[in-house]
Design brief:
single chain; 381 residues; Rossmann fold; two-stranded antiparallel sheet; 14 helices; thiamine pyrophosphate; oxidoreductase; Pyruvate dehydrogenase (Acetyl-transferring) E1 component subunit alpha; pyruvate
Length: 381
């Protein structure tokens, strides 16, 4: 796989002829290498050359990630999980960026980066423990350089920036990538992270998945400019990429990470995509958005787009697609079986590790809860 970029080494030229043309048609200014119809196109600033095997690998990643995500949603509806945040529609943004990272890079996710976790080698069943309420994360962040999910909106951008500053001080040539959504871009933590990253020239890539909705708030109620343009005010480049185009996301993210590794500082990527499902399983998107909007974006489905390209170029046959369907079924079964077999945590575990040296109030609460639990045993005797 080879990726070339000239634009990653300079700020975006938002006033160029290409930008004017985009504005004239009302379309977003973005990097695209694969049209919604699956046609390969070129971009003057970013290019990528992938083998047929690598293209099939990206397709496999997206299909299996979507199947896992759908299975998790179903498990929540069946009462097996307390909550689930679906990535439906955002597979290209996550797989493309995840596959752009190196093993020694460090990833700071939010709570929806199931596809990135897949790329980092985190077992998908480990993602479900927290949502089932049986652990506080389910994996060791240092095994895969993939931090635990962050529920607090935007805080991981600061964590990533601090980690990247440490990487620079250590003289390492690795990079850091922080994921957040369009809603999190309005948080003060993200603004502070931009400031520190710029001032300290930290090797961090800020990856914003703009899925158009911060729960029920549309993007236009959060910003008066495209999100990627915010980077200019902090002194580093930003770029908007077609978030449903896995090839473009891969090319742009790899270029941004390479740029960070060579000491050229931070960069903001806005992956322009769409959340086809609910914000979480506790949300009802029909209350605030139209069916026509979803149908418009379903025509830009990232998986169908790459499949059309594979079929158009004769890079995959029916045997490949059938085998992948069998693999998807096996993954779904493993997810179901693993979740239902997860042991319940010790009821008293919630009181552990709250204070390093213990605390009188926690001790009192522990004793009260133990007595409460014991009362049930007494009633059954």
């Amino acid at each position: 796989m080879t990726v070339d970029s000239t634009a990653a080494r300079k700020s975006r030229r938002s006033g160029g002829k290409r930008a004017v043309a985009k504005k004239a048609t009302g379309e977003p200014e973005l990097v695209q290498l694969l049209t919604p119809e699956g046609e390969r196109v070129e971009h003057p600033d970013y290019s990528i050359d992938l083998s047929p095997e690598e293209l099939r690998g990206l397709y496999r990643d997206m299909v299996l990630t979507r199947r896992f995500d759908g299975e998790a949603t179903t498990l929540q509806r069946q009462g097996e999980l307390g909550l689930w945040a679906s990535l439906l529609g955002q597979e290209a943004a996550q797989i493309g960026s995840g596959r752009a990272t190196r093993d020694d890079d460090y990833v700071f996710p939010t709570y929806r980066e199931h596809g990135v976790a897949w790329c980092r080698g985190v077992d998908p069943t480990n993602l479900l423990g927290m949502f089932r309420g049986v652990n506080h994360g389910g994996w060791d962040p240092n095994e895969n350089n993939f931090h635990l999910y962050t529920i607090v909106i935007g805080s991981q951008a600061l964590h990533a920036t601090g980690y990247a500053m440490g990487v620079a001080k250590d003289g390492a040539d690795s990079a850091v990538i922080a994921y957040f959504g369009d809603g999190a871009s309005s948080q003060g933590d993200v603004a502070e992270a931009f400031t520190f990253a710029a001032v300290y020239n930290a090797p961090v890539v800020f990856f914003c998945q703009n899925n158009q909705w911060a729960i029920s708030e549309p993007t236009e109620k959060q910003t008066r400019v495209p999100l990627f343009q915010r980077a200019q005010g902090y002194g580093f480049p930003g770029v908007r990429v077609d978030g449903n185009d896995v090839l473009a996301v891969l090319a742009v993210t790899k270029a941004a990470l390479d740029r960070a590794r060579t000491g050229e500082g931070p960069m903001l990527i806005e992956a322009f995509t769409y959340r086809m499902g609910a914000h979480t399983t506790s949300d009802d998107p029909t209350r605030y958005r139209r069916d026509e909007e979803r149908e418009l974006w379903e025509a830009k489905d990232p998986i169908l787009r790459l499949r059309a390209h594979l079929e158009r170029e004769g890079l995959a046959d029916e045997e490949f697609f059938a085998g992948l369907e069998t693999e998807s079924d096996a993954l779904a079964k493993r997810v179901r079986d693993t979740v239902r077999a997860m042991p319940d945590p010790d009821h008293m575990a919630m009181f552990e590790h709250t204070y390093a040296d213990g605390h009188a109030l926690v001790d009192e609460e522990r004793a009260q809860f133990a007595a409460y639990q014991a009362s049930f045993a007494e009633e059954t005797n």
